[in-house]
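PROTEIN DESIGN WORKSHEET
SECTION A - STRUCTURE
LENGTH: 740
TOKENS:
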């Protein structure tokens, strides 16, 4: 079955997200809602969404719109009809009746319901109709959340489900897991339970919200929003509705019931409009006093707000074993939460799925956890776990494991997909080396470097791993949310605070040396980014020989924001790329001015399509919808480059002072218009000096090393200024830029 045309009914949050992702896959899609006005607005929302739901805004015309009264006949042309209307069974039943009267024979019909069982959804359908009906449960925002749960029934035509899965996996890029018809399926059943346990235990143990979020966060391999931050993000009222539905659907003796009970403080928050970020605030709120925004946190006992102080647990690295062994209330909290999640998840095997592995993967894909409950159990160690756990009655999985004590119970990862992913090959690969920032694996005849720091920020160790891994073809790839958010600024500031600028210089030099080494080593180097590839992360990527990019990337050189300039070859590489254009051949100042504009404004691209016109990516770089395919596409490049020759060294002819002065004129205008302030001017001048080639004339041939040197010197002059240091400190503390 080929899916070429899709109709999505319901153009709210999810309908828009699904339509946009189909548009991204170049599929023609029609959005229908009660009125055409609603779908018109929906299309506009898709176009303007931030972060953008569309990879390429110019493709918006893949989406056509209409209403369910005048345009329902379009359903007859669709290969797949997705229902994403409000969560009301009467409305859904009505729509199915219309769909099955109109659709063409054999087309697939699915619902995006998050809580209604397929049995109930399909109760009015004939057996023949049931064959083609399933649930496709996408997560919000659809472009960015990788999980898709397909719920099938015993009536389904399995071939059709298989081909739908394949389409969703390869064309829509979703991690597609088939699951049983049980409440909340896999992701929400465990994910929402985990949030409720983290919340109720925090109340019980009298933790502050900052403490709970610091524990139920990075150290557990969970996104930094933790539990209270995540509650605010999702919407406290929406979470209350989700809980009500679980209470209704699950049996009375299900452990979920205990943690889903209404909490008086939560009820009060909803009643007073504190529904989270979309409302007046939630557990956290922004309070504006004296024109200053101050983040406040709620006291779980009194309900009063006070200034929120970030709680420092001492380590932000993921380390479950150390965390649960701590002899303080945080260790106790972590163990209580983790053990309850492991017990609950394992008690549901095989009821919700016979593959426990799928539960872990659903938590990774749907909640961005680094590890699911069973991997946590594996990390804690079977023996340790059973020494620590008090009881696990009526839990066949744990009873069995307590007998076998099999530390290797886990087996392979990512059983849900047939694609050859990093997660699948890592256990089979040989770990060659590991330091604080990266790991090197050897698989077949190539190496893999996986960064392992927070947001994969880069430091000396990251560079060391890259350099050491070039004795074979190399793939730089990881499974974390970000490819790399750039150089680790705290690491740099630690040196600056001590006045140890020599060490910073040494690091930048090593960074340059490593990137040059990546570019010219005798084996091909492939970067396979997903998520952020900013600053230093982008410099690694753009000096790799090949790029296989996920469509969800954010790339750019953003150093000027923190008062620096790219010094790992970013200026140099961008100059080189722009100097290869026809325009540059006619005008020697074309490339420096273009790059000045791009780096000066710290321009970023939120997809490969946006990245190409900026030359952050090249036309020949591969762009891939399915994150799970990044590794195999990278591998294919290596296999096709057996006789790889490194590129010829680049050189530059720049006009020095002549173009420098043009750039200064631009800066002066910005300064006079008060768009930049004193330090902005200084950073701009340093960037102009590098991009104009420094003290040079057009006849002089500059080598890559010359430009690296210009980058390094300018970087060092800037990092030594108080105002750059102020910018860095401000950004580290608030995540926001400082204009000075
Ligand atoms: P929404 O409230 O944002 O949008 C629902 C849309 O359905 C509205 O545009 C409404 O006008 C339209 N609608 C209502 N009756 C209709 C009818 N008879 N014919 C055509 N359109 C009609 O809802 P949302 O959040 O997009 O949810 C849609 C479905 O997706 C629900 O089943 C929900 O449970 C599920 N879901 C929601 C998620 C979320 O995060 N919002 C996540 C996963 C699933």
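SECTION B - SEQUENCE
RESIDUE ASSIGNMENT:
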């Amino acid at each position: 079955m080929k899916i070429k045309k899709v109709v999505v009914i319901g153009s709210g949050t999810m309908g828009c997200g699904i339509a946009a992702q189909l548009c991204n896959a170049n599929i023609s899609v029609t959005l229908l809602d009660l009125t055409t006005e609603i779908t018109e607005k929906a299309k506009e929302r898709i176009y303007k969404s931030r972060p953008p739901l569309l990879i390429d805004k110019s493709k918006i015309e893949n989406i056509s719109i209409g209403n369910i009264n005048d345009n329902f006949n379009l359903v007859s042309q669709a290969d797949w009809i997705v229902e994403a209307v409000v969560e009301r069974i009467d409305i859904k039943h009505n729509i199915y009746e219309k769909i099955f009267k109109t659709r063409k024979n054999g087309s697939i019909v699915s619902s995006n319901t998050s809580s209604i069982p397929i049995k109930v959804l399909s109760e009015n359908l004939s057996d023949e109709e049931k064959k083609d009906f399933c649930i496709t449960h996408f997560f919000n925002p659809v472009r960015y959340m990788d999980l898709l749960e397909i719920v099938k029934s015993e009536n389904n035509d399995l071939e059709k489900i298989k081909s739908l899965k394949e389409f969703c996996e390869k064309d829509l890029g979703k991690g597609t897991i088939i699951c049983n018809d049980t409440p909340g399926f896999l992701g929400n059943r465990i994910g929402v339970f985990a949030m409720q346990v983290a919340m109720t235990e925090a109340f019980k143990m009298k933790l502050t919200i900052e403490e709970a979020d610091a524990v139920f966060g990075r150290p557990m391999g969970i996104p930094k929003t933790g539990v209270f931050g995540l509650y605010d993000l999702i919407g406290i009222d929406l979470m209350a509705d989700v809980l009500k539905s679980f209470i209704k659907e699950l049996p009375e003796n299900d452990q979920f019931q205990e943690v889903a009970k209404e909490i008086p403080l939560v009820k009060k928050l909803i009643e007073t409009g504190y529904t989270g970020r979309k409302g007046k605030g939630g557990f956290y709120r922004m309070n504006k006093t004296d024109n200053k925004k101050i983040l406040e946190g709620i006291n779980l006992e009194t309900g009063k707000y006070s200034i929120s102080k970030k709680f420092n647990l001492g380590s932000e690295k993921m380390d479950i074993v150390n965390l649960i062994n701590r002899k303080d209330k945080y260790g106790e909290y972590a163990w209580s939460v983790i053990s309850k999640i492991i017990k609950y998840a394992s008690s549901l095997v095989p009821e919700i799925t016979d593959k426990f592995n799928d539960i872990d993967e659903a938590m990774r894909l749907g909640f961005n956890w680094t590890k699911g409950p069973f991997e946590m159990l594996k990390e804690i160690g079977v023996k340790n776990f059973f020494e620590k756990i008090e009881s696990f009655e009526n839990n066949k999985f744990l009873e069995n494991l307590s007998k076998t004590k099999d530390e290797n119970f886990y087996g392979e990862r990512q059983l849900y997909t047939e694609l050859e992913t990093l997660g699948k090959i890592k256990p089979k690969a040989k770990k060659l080396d590991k330091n604080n920032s990266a790991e090197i694996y050897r698989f077949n005849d190539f190496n893999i470097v996986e960064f392992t720091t927070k947001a994969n920020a880069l430091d000396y160790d990251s560079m060391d791993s890259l350099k050491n891994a070039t004795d074979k073809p190399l793939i730089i790839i990881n499974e974390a949310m970000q490819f790399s958010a750039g150089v680790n600024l705290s690491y740099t500031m630690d040196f600056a605070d001590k006045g140890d600028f020599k060490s910073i210089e040494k690091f930048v030099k090593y960074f340059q040396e490593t990137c040059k080494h990546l570019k010219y080593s005798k084996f091909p180097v492939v970067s396979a980014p997903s998520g952020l590839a900013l600053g230093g992360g982008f410099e690694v990527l753009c000096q790799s020989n090949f790029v296989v990019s996920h469509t969800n990337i954010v790339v750019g050189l953003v150093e000027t924001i923190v008062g620096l300039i790219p010094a790992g070859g970013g200026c140099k590489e961008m100059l080189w790329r722009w100097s290869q254009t026809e325009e540059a051949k006619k005008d020697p100042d074309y490339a420096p001015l273009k790059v000045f504009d791009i780096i000066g404004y710290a321009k970023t691209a939120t997809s490969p399509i946006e990245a190409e016109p900026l030359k952050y990516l090249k036309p020949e770089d591969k762009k891939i919808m399915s994150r799970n395919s990044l590794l195999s596409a990278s591998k294919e490049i290596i296999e096709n480059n057996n006789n790889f020759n490194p590129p010829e060294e680049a050189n530059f002819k720049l006009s020095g002072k002549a173009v420098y002065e043009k750039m200064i004129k631009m800066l002066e205008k910005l300064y006079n218009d008060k768009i930049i302030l004193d330090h902005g001017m200084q950073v701009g001048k340093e960037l102009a000096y590098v991009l104009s080639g420094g003290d040079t004339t057009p006849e002089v041939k500059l080598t890559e090393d010359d430009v690296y040197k210009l980058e390094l010197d300018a970087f060092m002059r800037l990092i030594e200024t108080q105002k750059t240091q102020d910018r860095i400190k401000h950004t580290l503390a608030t995540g926001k830029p400082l204009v000075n």
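SECTION C - NOTES
Residues 438-558+602-644 form a domain with the 2-enoyl-CoA Hydratase; Chain A, domain 1 fold (CATH 3.90.226.10).
Residues 501-520 form the longest helix (20 residues).
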